[in-house]
Amino acid sequence: QVQLVESGGGLVQPGGSLRLSCAASGSIFRIYTMSWYRQPPGKQRELVAQLTSASSTNYADSVKGRFTISRDYAKNTLYLQMNSLKPEDTAVYYCNFDLTNSRGRADYWGQGTQVTVSS
Fold first, then answer.
1. How far, in Å, CA of 99 to CA of 106, rounded?
2. How far apart are CA 28 and CA 55, in angstroms?
3. DSSP state at residue 114
4. Exposure string over 77-98, b if 16+ CB within 10 A, otherwise e
């Protein structure tokens, strides 16, 4: 089976930086997209950043110029570098892989990691 394990969340001051990691384990045949979502308190989950198999990227307008999505191809690990953090970035962040394995194509989710931006 495929498992996604997230790390890197925590408490940070406004203007600070964090880097989130999402490490995939298990047999994977093909990855179509790798994404980061977030869910602020009391709000719906939203797409933050996306990396496709063609290496194109897509960002929510609210994070453009501050967040960068990237991948370590040797480790099947996804990263989200977050700079110039604002209080409104506070949320639980989830990674998502759209992939194919021996059971077919499906979405897999990380367990979520809390990011809190506060003075």
1. 6
2. 18
3. E
4. bbbbebeebeeebbbbbbbbbb
pLDDT tens for the chain, 119 residues long, are: 899 999 999 999 999 999 999 999 998 989 999 999 999 999 999 999 999 988 899 999 999 999 999 999 888 899 999 999 999 999 999 999 999 999 999 999 999 999 999 99
Cβ atoms of 13 and 29 within 8 Å: the answer is no
Decide: 8 and 61 in contact? Cβ < 8 Å. Answer: no
Name the one residue in this structure whose structure tokens are 């797409």. Answer: 47
Contact 92, 38 (CB under 8 A): yes
Contacts of 5 (CB under 8 A, 6+ apart): 22, 23, 25, 110, 111
d(CA 58, CA 29): 23
Which residue type occupies 105?
A: R
Helix, strand, or coil here: 84?
Answer: coil
Scan for tokens 């490490």, then name that residue: 23
